[in-house]
Design goal:
Number of helices: 49
Domain NUP160 C-terminal TPR: 1025-1286
Keywords: Nucleus, Transport
Pfam families: Beta-prop_Nup120_160, NUP160_helical, TPR_NUP160_120_M, TPR_Nup160_C
Number of strands: 24
Shape: elongated
Strand content: 5-15%
GO molecular function, one term: structural constituent of nuclear pore
Distance between the termini: 164 Å
Largest sheet: 5 strands, mixed
InterPro entries: Beta-prop_Nup120_160, Nucleoporin_Nup160, NUP160_helical, TPR_NUP160_C, TPR_NUP160_M
């Protein structure tokens, strides 16, 4: 098999490194003329690291050179080894070679080999005089000389033997135990040649050679040979220039002559190609040139460089060019050559077709020439440790592997197969006649193969690629062969010879069965697919390294391709032969039972084998498809959603994108396929075999294990799963397409994987169709059974678990419409008591809701049998409709059917959402209000809106929050007013931190007995009626008024204001009507209102007197707050200034709200007096009518003596009856009238205060008051006396 182009061990060698003192030594050969040449050489390293070189010279001596160990300074030495007398040595030392003439060349060594024995190293040299000499490198003496002619069987011909130009060759072999070694000598004569295997032994103080065996070779030229523990490998060149290899088994414990066996050669590449008529030359030649393993890249590049030079293009490609780029370069070069060759600018189609064929044939011929040149064998190498046989070529390395029985029967020349080679096949019958029949049948197949042209073979495989029936294709080929062979005597003769050979087959049916058994790998499938449980760890470690290198992977991949190709050829030829037998029964004397069996059984089996091996050949040839990082990410998500990601190695994705220009089979072997193969071989005794046989024994087992892994009838899905995991969707789709019509194994897993391919390609509908093809009994397939294993311990129906996997996949990649279809399909086949039914209804609900099908989602929610899942669906349903603003739908749905009532749960969910979500994001309270109003539940509507308003005031600051709060209170009031009065109340909602939460944080206590207990504290519930809610609304409305008149930040934030605080702020802002309204509602005193209004009157009056009215800013401010109060209309003669309006407002409020006690007049008067402002006339007159005595006391309190004096005198006159209508005096002093009184205490205080002033006009006022009092007392005495007299008379 061809190998990869490996880098040479001399890759980094340079002239500088070679000539470095530590790596080389220059010396002169003492005593040797420059006319003599070095004929052979050998080298070795001692245990001490010294390098020893043995050089054979043309004058018969051996020059021995010793170099010191690498890196150590030392003196190189040289010695000449020659067997001669003392006089010959002196003569050669003193007489120059020119004088003494040329020496006899008969004893010059043609080949050398070095070997260490004990403490000494010996040189074994085979000379042209047919003798072997053994030299000691320690003593520089010849310790043994033996004549090889003694080992030849024909002694009488010794004198006539003539040696060939290449001379004899000697090689050595060390046993695996390292105890003995053998030497192999190739004796090359002009008439014949032979290999003699000898064993050097030390007997009685001297060395001698024991003859082991002989192997006689052909008359061809030997290129190289290699000797191992058990075999002799030879590389030959024939007289025609063909190179071939042969080998012979060697048993060192048995003497005798061994037979040489020729190795099956790799077929040479055809020099010309015949392009099928239905194909373009470019397409066909590209496919053949870049066919995997046909030409190495270096040969194509060299051919292309030469071809491009021929078209005057100086660009030269190197070996690092990618494969796709190389194809592009080839196409460009061929097209350029066609254009340069065309004589005219316009050519016909036929002319262009001929030009294409000429140029492509020319380039293909260059590729073949460079391929043959680069693959010219130079030597053979056999690894004695494991039996690996390799052929070293100019640019590459090839390996020889053991071939199977089918390959042996197919590739061996007719008549050369032996029955002994088939004895190892235990699946065949033990009858010797059966073996002979198989050989005869295979010779017939070779004759059929010789009738097939390349075009027929290519068309046959193309028909298989397009999934056509092989039987139909075979019938057409047979008809073609019969028609063509009627005019082609040579081809007709081959068919006739095949039928003649069939007559020699004694039992044709048994022979056909035997061949089919050899082709069928199903026979040992169960034996191969064993478990690796209990395998030794060291055994597993060794197996893990088996064929794990790049070269090992390439070797195994190439071997699979070769086996698949060979088996395909045999299966195809067998199918054609059977078809020929059926078509030409008159020329074949067969039993009727055999013919019936061929027609009914063998042809169908051959058809299956053809399909199987074509599929395996296609897998070995197909290149990996380029993969992007996005495809990898999508693939990981898809596998993870299905629970299949753990079946793929986590590090297997690292090399996916780097697998460009590589064969799929190599990638499969290096990853999943190789791991599976090693698991299969774990229980075998593969590593227990002899190490020398490891290559020959392990490779067939490994190869068979890999073939069984990719065998279509294998029950495991390792290969399809690998294709899926590596994103090779196109290849997986073609794999399923190639096997779906005839392979009934893993049909449903393949359908499932094909669905994943469609899914990854975006064809989701096709994917779902493939998923639903899986039968109801998913446990019938191992892969599907592993897929549906539930993660938990619940005993779920595997069918339902499978559907859930598909649903998860569709949901993750957002295909809700198909998820609904799959879920409904699962529901239709599920049992009513299945626990997973609730999950399926939840899936239907979720995806219907995602699609916007609210009614269908609602129906699915009500159909869910599980209460908890139904509540979860309901919660999601409400949230999604709210987010979509489909509130009309949400409110109008009934949320009930014959078995389920969900209204309370709807309210509970909405209330929970309303209380937990931020009020600025979404208002679930409005939704709840609408929900209750729609159902005419006005009490709950009012309660929810009140709660909304409370939260607005607590959590939302600013004008909008207050406005919303006010609207909420109004809505609550409107709702409650629609309820019967006895039910028009609500429960005040608790604050966020409830007493229950506080009690949970209290540490537990213990009683006197030590028993633990907790405090129990009942939550207090507040009941709110319409009046209470209205009061809260008024306060909020007042705050809004404050913000409208004075938008200060302090009014927008902070806790809710109580009534006194609201009144104070309203008065401060000039909103006296609103302040009065709050006082009335909350039954508060109006004193703060009148005090504030009185103060504004004083301020306006003072500003009105100090500034002009036009530019008084304070007046403008007064007008702003006055417009928010109810103003008293003025008369035509009255002034309409702001000051006058304020005074009229004060007068109006006092008249309207004075309760008769004079408390509001007093607070107004006090405010005036405090600011040193006199009472206006209307106020003084009103106060006198209300309580003159109180006014007098106020005058005295503020030391307004003059005003008090005049008031006292007027009051005295009013009591006497003069002007009593201006005071709060109902009657005057007269006989029979009601008693009257005067505030004597206040009058006395006034007189005293006036007297203390002792200045005018206070003294005069004091006297006038005294005079008034005197008059009053006199009248009082007279009236009292008259009253007494009138009373006495009456008595």
């Amino acid at each position: 098999m061809p190998g990869s182009s490996l880098p040479s061990i001399f890759t980094d060698v340079s002239v500088f490194k070679v000539t470095a003192p530590g790596n080389s030594h220059n010396f002169n050969i003492i005593g040797i003329s420059t006319t003599h040449q070095i004929l052979a050489a050998s080298s070795c390293l001692t245990k001490d690291g010294e390098a020893i070189f043995a050089l054979s010279t043309s004058h018969g001596s051996v020059l021995l050179v010793k170099l010191p160990p690498h890196g150590i300074q030392g003196i190189p030495t040289q010695h000449e080894l020659k067997q001669s007398s003392m006089m010959q040595r002196l003569f050669s030392g003193f007489v120059p070679s020119v004088i003494r003439g040329g020496s006899d060349a008969a004893d010059c060594a043609s080949s050398l080999v070095l070997h260490a024995v004990g403490q000494d190293i010996f040189v074994f040299a085979v000379s042209r005089d047919h003798k072997i000499r053994m030299w000691s490198c320690k003593d520089y003496d010849c310790v043994m000389a033996a004549d090889m002619l003694e080992f030849m069987p024909y002694n009488e011909r010794r004198a006539t033997l003539t040696i060939r130009d290449e001379g004899h060759i000697i090689k050595k072999c060390v046993s695996s135990s390292r105890q003995t070694f053998y030497i192999g000598v190739f004796l090359s004569f002009s008439t014949d040649c032979q290999f003699s295997i000898l064993e050097p032994v030390y007997v009685d103080g001297r060395y001698q050679l024991n003859h082991i065996t002989d192997v006689f070779g052909p008359e061809d030229d030997l290129i190289d040979f290699c000797l191992t523990d058990d075999s002799l490998w030879m590389l030959w060149s024939s007289s025609h220039g063909d190179v071939y290899a042969s080998h012979a088994s060697v048993e060192y414990k048995k003497t005798g002559i061994r037979t040489m066996n020729t190795v099956i050669r790799e077929p040479r590449q055809p020099g010309e190609l015949s392009v099928p008529g239905h194909l373009e030359p470019r397409e066909y030649y590209l496919e053949q040139i870049f066919y995997p393993g046909r030409f190495n890249t270096l040969a194509i590049i060299r051919a292309l460089n030469i071809f491009k030079h021929s078209v005057d293009n100086i660009q030269v490609l190197n070996s690092m060019v990618p494969l796709e780029a190389l194809k592009t370069e080839v196409l460009a070069a061929i097209e350029q050559e066609i254009q340069d060759t065309a004589s005219d600018y316009s050519v016909s189609d036929d002319e262009y077709q001929n030009l294409q064929l000429q140029q492509w044939a020319k380039f293909y011929s260059c590729c073949v020439q460079y391929h043959e040149r680069s693959t010219k064998p130079l030597g053979v190498f056999v690894d004695g440790e494991n039996g690996l046989v390799s052929v070293v070529k100019k640019d590459t390395t090839s390996f020889y592997r053991p071939c199977g029985s089918v390959e042996y029967l197919s590739l061996t020349d007719p008549g050369q197969c032996s029955v002994e080679a088939l004895h190892k096949e235990v699946i065949l019958h033990e009858d010797e006649s059966t073996f002979q029949d198989v050989i005869e049948l295979c010779d017939c197949l070779k004759l059929i193969d010789g009738c097939l042209t390349d075009e027929i073979v290519y068309s046959f495989e193309q028909d298989l690629y397009h999934a056509q029936d092989p039987i139909t294709v075979a019938k057409s080929i047979v008809a073609l062969l019969i028609n063509i062979n009627d005019y082609n005597y040579a081809e007709r003769q081959k068919i006739d010879e095949a039928f003649i050979r069939l007559q020699h087959v004694q039992h044709l049916d048994r022979a056909i069965e035997a061949v089919m058994m050899l082709l069928d790998l199903t026979n040992n499938e169960q034996e191969a697919m064993t478990d690796d449980t209990g395998v030794d760890a060291s055994h597993q470690l060794c197996l893990s390294r088996l064929f794990s290198s790049d070269m090992g992977v390439h070797v195994l991949s190439t071997a699979i391709h070769q086996v698949a190709q060979c088996h395909l050829d045999v299966s195809r030829d067998l199918l054609l032969l059977l078809t020929l037998i059926i078509h030409m029964t008159d020329q074949v004397a067969l039993d009727q039972a055999v013919l019936v069996k061929i027609q009914s059984e063998f042809i169908s089996k051959a058809c299956v084998l053809v399909r199987v091996y074509y599929m395996m050949k296609w897998l070995a040839e197909v290149m990996t498809m380029p993969t992007t990082a996005n495809q990898v990410d999508t693939n990981i998500q898809m596998l993870e959603s299905l629970g299949l990601l753990e079946r793929v190695k986590p590090d297997s994705y690292q090399n996916i994108t780097d697998s460009k220009d590589s064969r799929l089979m190599e990638l499969f072997i290096s990853m999943t396929g190789g791991q599976k193969m090693k698991e299969v071989l774990c229980n075998s005794n593969l590593l227990d075999e002899n190490s020398c046989q490891f290559w020959t024994r392990s490779l067939p087992s490994v190869l068979r294990a890999m073939l069984q892994i990719i065998w279509p009838y294998n029950s495991c899905v390792t290969l399809p799963m690998f294709l899926l995991s590596q994103c090779q969707y196109t290849i997986l789709q073609q794999y399923v397409h190639l096997t779906e019509d005839w392979c009934d194994v893993n049909n449903y897993p393949k359908s499932f994987l094909l669905g994943l391919v469609y899914f990854s390609s975006g064809e989701i509908e096709k994917a779902v169709d493939c998923f639903l093809k899986v039968p109801l009994d998913v446990t019938s397939e191992d892969f599907l059974c592993q897929l549906v294993v539930a993660d938990d311990s619940q005993d779920y129906d595997p069918r339902m678990v499978y559907y859930l996997k598909i649903l998860n996949l569709l949901e993750q990649f957002h295909h809700p419409h198909l998820a609904v279809s799959v879920a409904k399909n699962a529901i239709s086949i599920s049992n009513e008591d299945d626990d997973i039914l609730a999950t399926l209804w939840s899936k239907v609900f979720k995806n219907e809701l995602e699609l916007g099908h609210n009614e269908d989602a609602y129906t699915a929610m009500l159909s869910n049998p599980d209460k908890d899942r139904r509540r979860d669906c309901l919660r999601q349903f409400l949230v999604v409709l709210c987010e979509r603003s489909e509130l009309q739908t949400l409110v109008s749905l009934p949320y009930r059917d014959r078995h389920v009532v969900l209204e309370d749960e709807v309210v509970s969910i909405l209330e929970s959402r309303a209380r937990s979500i931020d009020l600025t994001k979404h208002s679930y309270y409005d939704l709840l209000y609408s929900f209750h109003v729609f159902r005419q539940n006005y009490r709950k509507a009012g309660s929810i809106m009140y709660e909304y308003g409370v939260r607005q005031g607590r959590e939302i600051s600013g004008l909008k929050g207050l406005q919303k709060q006010a609207k909420c209170y109004l809505a609550a009031l409107n709702a409650l007013r629609l309820v019967s009065p006895e039910y028009a109340w609500i429960v005040k909602p608790l604050p966020p931190s409830t007493d229950v939460d506080q009690m949970d944080r209290i540490a537990s206590k213990r009683d006197l007995d030590g028993k633990e207990f907790k405090f129990s504290k009942k939550c207090q519930v507040d009941v709110l009626e319409l009046e209470d809610i209205f009061k809260e609304y008024i306060l909020v409305h007042a705050r809004l008024q404050l913000l409208q008149t004075c938008p200060e930040p302090g009014y927008m934030s902070g806790p809710t204001l109580n009534a006194p605080e609201s009144v104070a702020l309203l008065v401060d802002s000039g909103l006296f009507d609103s302040a009065v309204n709050i006082c009335k509602i909350f039954k508060l005193s109006l004193a703060p209102v009148f005090e504030g209004l009185a103060l504004r009157c004083v301020t306006l009056a003072e500003n009105n007197t100090t500034r002009t009215q036009g530019d008084n800013q304070y007046m403008a401010d007064a007008w702003r707050w006055l417009q928010h109060n109810e103003l008293v209309p003025a008369n035509a003669v009255q002034d309409n200034s702001a000051t006058d309006h304020v005074w009229r407002l004060l007068q109006n409020l006092l008249c309207k709200y004075e309760d008769g006690t004079g408390v509001y007049h007093k607070c107004v008067a006090v405010k005036f007096f405090t600011h040193g402002f006199p009472l206006p006339t209307w106020l003084e007159e009103s106060y006198k009518k209300l309580d003159a005595a109180a006014l007098l006391r106020l005058y005295l309190d503020y030391n307004m003596l003059e005003e008090a004096a005049y008031l006292t005198m007027e009051y005295i006159d009013a009591v006497r009856g003069k002007g009593k209508e201006f005071f709060s005096v109902k009657t005057s002093l007269h006989v029979g009238g009601s008693p009257v009184w005067l505030p004597y205490t206040s009058i006395d205080q006034l007189i005293i205060s006036l007297d203390e002033e002792r200045r005018q006009p206070f003294t005069e006022l004091s006297e006038q008051i005294q005079d008034k009092l005197d008059v009053y007392f006199n009248e009082l005495k007279q009236v009292s006396d008259d009253t007494l007299r009138a009373g006495g008379m009456q008595q």
